[in-house]
Amino acid sequence: MKNVLILGATSAIAHEVAKLYADEQAHLFLVARNEFKLETIAKDLIVRGAKVTSGVANFHDFSSHPRLLEQIKEKLGNIDVVLLAYGSLGNQAESEKNISVALQEIETNFLTAFSLLSLLAHILEAQGSGTLAVISSVAGDRGRQSNYIYGTAKGALNIFLQGLRNRLYKKGVHVLTIKPGFVDTPMTTHLKKGFLFSSSQKVGNDIYKAIEEKEDVLYTPQFWRAIMFVIRNIPEALFKRLNL
């Protein structure tokens, strides 16, 4: 039986990944801040065949991270997969005007993950196995005027994960950076949907497959790899003139 820890388990994408592990009758430890949503998802996964343990946590309480992970480790024993799936898509204009809003976005999308993943890296390194799978974003590939505060956090996360991957590879630990494009989830309800949007089910399936196949970096859907290759390679002299 696989032991799977999901941080941010109430996200639509995380739920889709959890369903696939439930089909394997895995032991899922679900952590999120919304107790009602957590209970609803837990019940669904139990019906699908999973053994489920859940806990409510505020990831912004950095001092609680060590004890939280100790409790999870005590309950699960060996941790086979960690999926870090939470985040927020902030308002760029508001972040530009209010530094407190911008700092909150950086804390949510990078600093809390940095803290949790640093602690989890020690745990998986000590056991000599396991996967750290982290949902980042294509927004972290290059700073664009439309979302560079969010992109800053995700870009920092991407670099951090590169370093972890390099450090942990020889220890038997797999690190997967997940870079979705636009996904139709509650976090993007305010955005106009277009042909570049994908479903949470599609993205969840891609993530599950990438974890099992031990990929290093996943662009999902796959066409985002080509899109971001082009965007990353536009000369800066031209790029600064574009409205992106």
Helix/strand order: EHEHEHEHHEHEEEHEHH
What is the CATH top level name?
A: Alpha Beta
Named CATH architecture: 3-Layer(aba) Sandwich
Number of helical elements: 9
Q: Can you give a write-up of this model?
A:
The protein is of the alpha/beta class and 244 residues long. The protein has a single domain, classed as 3-Layer(aba) Sandwich (Rossmann fold), CATH 3.40.50. It is 49% helix and 17% strand. The protein is built from 9 helices and 9 strands. The protein has helices spanning 12-23, 35-47, 65-76, 92-97, 99-127, 148-168, 200-212, 223-232, 236-239; strands spanning 3-7, 27-32, 51-56, 81-84, 131-135, 174-180, 183-184, 198-199, 217-220. The strands form 2 sheets. It has a 7-stranded parallel beta sheet, with helices on both faces. β5 (131-135), α6 (148-168) and β6 form a beta-alpha-beta unit. α1 packs across α7 (200-212) and α5 (99-127) packs parallel to α6. It starts with a strand and ends in a 5-residue tail after the last helix. The model has no long low-confidence stretch (mean pLDDT 96).
Task: Describe the structure using short key phrases.
single chain; 244 residues; alpha/beta; Rossmann fold; two-stranded parallel ribbon; globular
Sequence-ordered SSE layout with sheet pairings:
Layout lengths: L2 E5 L4 H12 L3 E6 L2 H13 L3 E6 L8 H12 L4 E4 L7 H6 L1 H29 L3 E5 L12 H21 L5 E7 L2 E2 L13 E2 H13 L4 E4 L2 H10 L3 H4 L5
Helix pairs in contact: 1-7, 3-5, 5-6
Summarize the model shown:
The chain has 244 residues and is an alpha/beta fold. Helices cover 49% and strands 17% of the residues.
